[in-house]
């Protein structure tokens, strides 16, 4: 397709390369220059190779190795401390359980000894109380049973004695018992004898 242009003076259509207007003689002094468009410089896009290029950096490898070792050591220390703590807790619990068991056995043994002593004193005190009633108080009665109620400290105990005569009369009196270990006997005290004298007759 042939390019054309128009005369600016008379408007005649002319070929694009015409120097003069064939109608009015107008001279085209210079050809208009078509401005060239500046193409934008493309921005380089990062490639996958450039993105991970730092991985090949010697300093990065060095610090990554150091960081990995530090993290590994920290994990080992944490795990070791946790294991030690659990072992200590288990040992503490076992020690507490063993201590409780020893105290329980000791208490049971102590209670067993006290109960055994009280039974022995109750049995031995019956004859002692009977002899006191008949010989010291001159009464026609005898002790049929002695009950030790509590340990008052050391070799001393307290309780009561059941007393009756041949006629069916009966009463009870408080007594204090001392375990005379070096003589393998018991000593009995009757703090209040008035009940005995009120209830029983004299041997005379």
TrEMBL record:
Region called Disordered, residue ranges: 97-121
Domain of life of the organism encoding this protein: Bacteria
Record-annotated membrane-spanning stretches: 63-85
Protein's UniProt keywords contain Transmembrane: yes
Keyword Coiled coil: no
Alphabetic keyword roster: Membrane, Transmembrane, Transmembrane helix
Residues of the Zinc-ribbon domain: 6-27
Low complexity bias locations: 97-115
Pfam families (UniProt xref): Zn_Ribbon_1
UniProt name for this protein: Zinc ribbon domain-containing protein
């Amino acid at each position: 397709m042939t390019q054309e242009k128009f005369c600016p003076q008379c408007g005649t259509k002319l070929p694009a390369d015409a120097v003069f207007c064939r109608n009015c003689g107008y001279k085209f002094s210079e050809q208009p220059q078509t401005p060239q468009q500046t193409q934008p410089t493309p921005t380089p896009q990062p490639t996958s190779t450039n993105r991970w290029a730092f991985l090949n950096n010697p300093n990065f490898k060095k610090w990554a190795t150091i960081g990995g070792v530090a993290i590994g050591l920290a994990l080992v220390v944490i795990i070791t401390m946790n294991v030690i703590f659990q072992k200590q807790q288990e040992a503490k619990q076992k020690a507490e359980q063993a201590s409780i068991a020893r105290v329980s056995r000791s208490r049971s043994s102590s209670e067993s000894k006290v109960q055994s002593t009280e039974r022995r004193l109750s049995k031995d005190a019956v004859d002692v109380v009977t002899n006191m009633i008949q010989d010291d108080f001159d009464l026609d009665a005898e002790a049929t049973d002695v009950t030790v109620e509590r340990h008052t400290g050391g070799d001393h105990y307290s309780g009561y004695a059941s007393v009756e005569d041949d006629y069916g009369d009966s009463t009870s009196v408080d007594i204090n018992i001392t375990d005379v270990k070096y003589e393998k006997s018991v000593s009995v005290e009757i703090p209040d004898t008035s009940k005995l004298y009120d209830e029983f007759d004299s041997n005379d």
